[in-house]
Amino acid sequence: MIKFFLYISISLLTFNFSFAKNIDIQEDIKIDFVCELEKKILKNSEYNYQTFLAKDLDDQNLDKFEIDAKQPEKLLIKGLSSFLSKTPKFEVKIVNKDVVLFKAFDKEKNYSESGIINRKSGELVHEITVGLKSDNFEKNISFYSCS
């Protein structure tokens, strides 16, 4: 559990740094992962940041999660969600030897998806936020272990 909080803290620091430079693709990569869902945190009208373990959920693992990045600014994410698979334009694209960080919004800026994967440890955090413009926004934060 402490590992995940440390990972989220590091990702938030990295994410804050990324606002200074939203596009920073330092190397070309094409990687496929198989990811196992470990837990999910939900914030909505029913749950207030409640944690659920994978065994308690009907959600699926990721059989094929792909990252394709090319310098200077191409980044494609496939297999994580249909929204990200169809989105060619990410607002945040950070790729280096340690992490891949990305964030995308819909046209109305009312829906966003972001993620960070530690390429060395295989830890993936995927966040979906719905209703960004409302006071009752919903969050779905998934934690995966990828290989």
Please give the share of residues in helix: 10-25%
List the total number of helices: 2
Major sheet attributes: 10 strands, mixed
Going by helix content, strand content and strand pairing, the class is: alpha+beta
Total tally of structural domains: 1
Mean pLDDT across the residues is 88
Secondary-structure element order, as H and E? HEEEEEHEEEEE
From the structure provided, what is the oligomeric state, counting identical versus distinct chains?
single chain
Structural commentary:
The chain has one domain. It is built from 2 helices and 10 strands, in the order αβββββαβββββ. It has helices spanning 2-20, 82-86, and strands at 23-25, 29-43, 48-53, 62-70, 74-78, 92-95, 99-105, 111-118, 123-130, 138-146. Strands 1, 2, 3, 4, 5, 6, 7, 8, 9 and 10 form a 10-stranded mixed β-sheet that branches. The protein is globular. The protein starts with a helix and ends with a strand.
